[in-house]
Amino acid sequence: AAAEKGGFDTFMAKEIHEQPQAVADTLRGRIDETGQIVLDEVRMSDQDFRDIDKVFIVACGTSYHAGLVTKYAIEHWTRIPCEVELASEFRYRDPVLDRSTLVVVISQSGETMDTLMALRHAKDQKARVLAISNTVGSTIPRESDAVLYTRAGIEVAVASTKAFLTQLAACYLVGLHLAQVRGIKYADEVSAILDELVASPGKIAKVIENLEPVREMARGSVGKDRVLFIGRHVGYPVALEGALKLKELAYLHAEGFAAGELKHGPISLIEDGTPVVAIVPSPRGRSLLHDKIISNIQEVKARGAKVIAICEEGDAITASHADFVIETPATPTLLAPLLTTVPLQEFAIELATAMGRDIDQPRNLAKSVTVE
Ligand code: AGP
């Protein structure tokens, strides 16, 4: 078993380290020399993509978080309205779907019953269904109209890591493809994003090389009643994902919030010493967002929180406000989740290890949830 883990203590640790390769594999062959995205295996024509006037993304758990990130990207790049929904809620509320709706279902295993039932509902309503899955030949891709496979390889640990990053990569490809076939307002931005997407595996590797400070902070958070995660824009789904990892692995109360919502309730949870992990957007470009999260950091610090900020390297403003900073390489805001998620995975694994938890097989959880 030790050999299967490739020298790591757990499958999850091994899978965290496989992320640069997994993302590179997922991108490989899907961007041609002219910078066009080729999704031949998707079997939807350019005209099919042009006919779409609404996108729904439906998934569970971590895959749902990948969907939340994708909403920001799709709406910005394509101007097509995009909604994201938990699969277990989707079909029970009678969503408005028709032939011009694209339903993207995201499932690592391809067997999640909630997601499968949502997909069947979408097909009954005549929507087109595109699956993003890591498991070739599984039920969800088989029942979908089209499929884009992630190439994470087998993920053994119950807590999803490399599958999530490859879902993001695949979702970005879908968003950029939609933008390209529809003729876009942001052509320059899209080609810059593509270059950055191709560069992302190297940047993920840099984040992985620099995880020791996160481990230290995780050990310093042992014994706390709760850990909160805050973010804005795509940092919000990253906050949800960081909290889910910690719940799953450490059995600790962890919650992710949109940072702007703090003042509408959750800020009352902050006590002296409560760890708050803040996902800070780049100070370049969307600096308004950056200013806003700095004020959120100030608000929680004023109530005694210990702030761990995940920020872009060289972000001196964040460094001057947070108690600890973890730096990630510069990248466009929409792609940042590929980098900022990684320290949160490590935070969870380290804190859970310090608490003596079973990392690969947390209690009460199954890798693939085949009941509704
Ligand atoms: C992630 O760490 C979880 N174990 C879980 O939330 C998972 O992402 C969810 O059950 C969806 O699984 P799927 O991607 O295989 O459909």
UniProtKB/TrEMBL annotation:
Enzymatic reactions: D-fructose 6-phosphate + L-glutamine = D-glucosamine 6-phosphate + L-glutamate
What gene is this protein translated from? Answer: glmS
Give the annotated active site.
367
Q: What is this protein called?
A: Glutamine--fructose-6-phosphate aminotransferase [isomerizing]
Q: Which organism is it from?
A: Glycomyces niveus
**What do we know about how this protein assembles, alone or with others?**
Homodimer.
Residue ranges of the SIS domain? Answer: 45-184, 213-362
| Entry keywords, A to Z | Aminotransferase, Cytoplasm, Glutamine amidotransferase, Repeat, Transferase
User: What does the function comment of this entry state?
Assistant: Catalyzes the first step in hexosamine metabolism, converting fructose-6P into glucosamine-6P using glutamine as a nitrogen source.
**Localisation per UniProt entry:** Cytoplasm
Please tell me where this protein is predominantly located. Answer: cytoplasm
> What are the EC numbers?
2.6.1.16
Could you name the domain of life of the organism this protein comes from? Answer: Bacteria
Q: Which GO terms describe its molecular function?
A: glutamine-fructose-6-phosphate transaminase (isomerizing) activity
